[in-house]
Amino acid sequence: MIKNILITGGAGYIGSHVAEILLKKNKKVFIVDNLSTGHKKLLNRKAKFFKINIRNQLKINNLIKKFNIDSIIHLAANLIIEEGQKKPDKYYKNNVLGTKKILNACKQTGVKNFIFSSTAAIYKEGQYRVSENSIIKPKSVYGKTKLKAEKLIKEFAKKNQINYGILRYFNIAGSSPSGKFGLINKKSDHLFKNFSREILKNNPKLRIYGSDYKTKDGSCIRDFIHVADIAEIHFLILKKIDKLKISKILNCGYNKGTSVLDVAKEFKSQTTKKVDIIFAKRRKNDLVKIIASNEKLIKFIKWTPKFNNLGKIVKSCISWEKKLIN
Ligand SMILES: NC(=O)c1ccc[n+]([C@@H]2O[C@H](COP(=O)([O-])OP(=O)(O)OC[C@H]3O[C@@H](n4cnc5c(N)ncnc54)[C@H](O)[C@@H]3O)[C@@H](O)[C@H]2O)c1
Fold it and tell me: Which atom of ligand 1 is nearest to the CA of 142?
C-alpha cells in the first residue's frame, strides 16, 4: 500500500495541488524542491519540506531511507519552452540528468512506484488528436528533454522492479478549489496566468500569438485541463500501479480542443471592463493544435473529470490572481 510519498517539485504549481490531494487522502507527503521556480507560499504545512536539489543524490537517498518512502512523484523540472531553446544545457541537466539521479536513488533505496510528469510537447506537430501511440517528435528542447527522461524511466524499469506511470500532461490551468494553491511564477509564460494578470488591470489587453493558423478561428488549439483534475489523476494512478504492479504511459487531457481565442473571450465575458484582444506574431515553437485522446486514462482509472469547464477554470484563475495581489 502507498503510504509515504516524496514529491519532487512540490513547491511548484502542479506539485502543490498534488500534495494537497494526497494529504486529503491521509498519505504522508515529503517535498523536495530547490525553490528555483517554486514558492514557499505553495508549500503545504502538513507536508515535510526539504530544500534540496534533485541532483543531490546523497541527500535524496538519505531522505528516502529515513522516511521509508515507497513512491516518488517526480515533477521537478524546467519547463519554459523559449528558455529551453536558449539554454539547452540547463534543460538537459535538470530534466534529464535530474531524472537519472532520482531513478538511481530509487534503485539504491528500493522505492517501488514512480510517477513522472511528461508532456504533450513530445508529440510530432500536425497530428491533432494524439494517442499514446501517435508519432513522437518533439519540436522544442524542453520536449526533447522530457522524451529522454521517459526513455530513461522505461530502460530503468526493465532492469529494476519498479512500477511507473508516465503522465503526458496537456495544458494545465486553474487553481485549487480550496483557494489555497495556484500559479505564482510570473515568468512561466502561462496563457491563463498572463490573461488573469491582465484582466485585473485598468485597460486589459489579451495578447494572442498568431491569428492565421489553419484552425477554426486562426488561433492555436489546446486541450486545457484543470489542475485539480490533474492532481486527482496522480493519486488514482499511483494507487492503481501499486495495486496491479504495472506500468503505464497515459495522456492526461479532456479530449477537447479549445482555441486561445475562446479562452480570451471567456476572460472578457467574466469582467465588465473594456477588454482588447490583440493578435501578435506567431511564436516559433508553438504547436498549432493538439488535443489528448484520453481513452487509456479513462479506462485505467475509471476517471470522470470534475472540473471540465472553461468558465470554471477561468473563474478560478481570476480569483487566485486577485488573492495574490491583495
Ligand atoms: N504546467 C503545465 O502546463 C505542464 C504541462 C506539461 C508538463 N508539465 C510538467 O509538470 C511538472 C511541474 O510543472 P509546474 O507547472 O508545476 O512547474 P513549476 O515550475 O511550478 O514547478 C516545478 C518545481 O520544481 C522545482 N525544481 C526545479 N528544478 C529543481 C531541482 N533541480 N531540484 C529541486 N527542485 C527543482 C521548482 O522550484 C518548482 O517548484 C514539470 O515537470 C513540467 O514539465 C507541466
Answer: 43
- The mean per-residue pLDDT over the stretch 172-191 comes to 91
4-173+223-252: which CATH architecture? 3-Layer(aba) Sandwich (3.40)
128 catalytic per annotation: no
Residue pLDDT, tens place only, 16-63? 999 999 999 999 999 999 999 999 999 999 999 999 999 999 999 999
Atom of ligand 1 nearest to the CA of 185: 20
Domain boundaries along the sequence of the chain? 4-173+223-252, 186-222+255-292+302-325
Higher pLDDT, 189 or 263: 263
Q: Does 326 score more than 80 pLDDT?
A: no
Catalytic residue among 13, 91, 123, 142: 142
Q: How many CA atoms lie within 13 A of 176 on its CB side?
A: 23
Write down the residue that cell numbers 477554426 correspond to: 216
Q: Just give the CATH number of 186-222+255-292+302-325.
A: 3.90.25.10
Task: Dump strand ranges (E) for 111-247.
Answer: 113-119, 128-130, 163-169, 171-173, 205-209, 221-222, 224-226
